[in-house]
Design a protein that fits this description.
Number of domains: 2
Protein name: GAF and ANTAR domain-containing protein
InterPro entries: ANTAR, CheY-like_superfamily, GAF, GAF-like_dom_sf, GAF_ANTAR, WH-like_DNA-bd_sf
Low-confidence stretches: none
Keywords: Kinase, Transcription, Transcription regulation, Transferase
Organism: Geodermatophilus normandii
GO molecular function: kinase activity; RNA binding
Helix content: 55-70%
CATH architecture of the largest domain: 2-Layer Sandwich
Mean pLDDT: 88
CATH class of the largest domain: Alpha Beta
Length: about 240
């Protein structure tokens, strides 16, 4: 380990603190983190982000290389692996040498076949609203090299912060957009109900039932039926 290696590693950690996780997409943030991983650790690590949905199913939200996404899928299929262990149990998991399979032999075999000799999976900070973790698939084994293992785990612990921040920001933005869409839908439905209530002397519940009936008959969303009524005034007899 040279002084130049130390300097590159320190510089990469400092640069991680400048990655604007809340201002970029998860893909853009992961791409930048992958560049810094290469600078800090060498050998162009492949990175992926595992998220666990509300129903408990895992998915890969972003990946810097196809091999990372493919190895994630192996673990999802098996229902076990470092990415799932880290995400669901909130602990750092290290596979030091996939060439000497131990706990996850099938995953290790497939990782080694794709020149991924070690794996580091780090959970998101527990305060984040997203359950998941960051996975590093390295092309060098960490077994027997304590400094290299330390560097990989320290880097992962730092890198997971902007990645988790980007996902949390994206989730918040999506929820805000969904809320705005729901409010717009409710407004137009209320307008349509008012038209029906006046035209056919219906109660509010009866007006909504009429919209729902046409929706079912035409295989159209209630909102779209309401928009059609508000825009054209056309509606079948109640």
């Amino acid at each position: 380990m040279t002084r130049l290696d130390d300097d590159r590693f320190s510089a990469a950690l400092l640069d991680l603190g400048l990655v604007p996780g809340a201002a970029q997409s998860p893909d853009d943030v992961l791409s930048r983190v992958a560049e810094l991983a290469d600078a800090a650790l060498g050998h162009t690590p492949a990175l992926s982000v595992t998220v666990v949905r509300d129903d408990g199913t895992p998915a890969t939200a972003a990946a810097s290389a196809r091999v990372a996404a493919d190895l994630d899928v192996v673990q999802y299929r098996l229902g076990s692996g470092p990415c799932l262990e880290a995400a669901t149990r909130s602990r750092v998991v290290v596979v030091e040498d996939t060439g000497r399979p131990d706990q996850w032999p099938e995953l290790s075999e497939q990782a080694a076949a794709q020149d991924r000799r070690s794996i580091v999976s780090t959970p998101f900070p527990t305060a984040r609203p997203v359950v998941g973790g960051l996975n590093l698939y390295l092309s060098r084994a960490l077994a027997g090299d304590a400094p290299a293992r330390e560097r990989a785990t320290v880097f992962a612990r730092h890198a997971v912060v902007p990645v988790a921040g980007a996902l949390a920001h994206a989730l918040t933005a999506r929820h805000a957009e969904d809320l705005q869409t729901a409010l717009r839908s409710r407004a137009v439905i209320d307008q349509a109900k008012g038209i029906l209530m006046e035209r056919f002397r219906l109660t509010a519940d009866q007006a909504f039932d009429a919209l729902a009936r046409v929706s079912n008959q035409t295989n159209t969303k209630v909102r779209d039926v309401a928009v059609q009524l508000v825009d054209t005034g056309e509606f079948p007899p109640v």
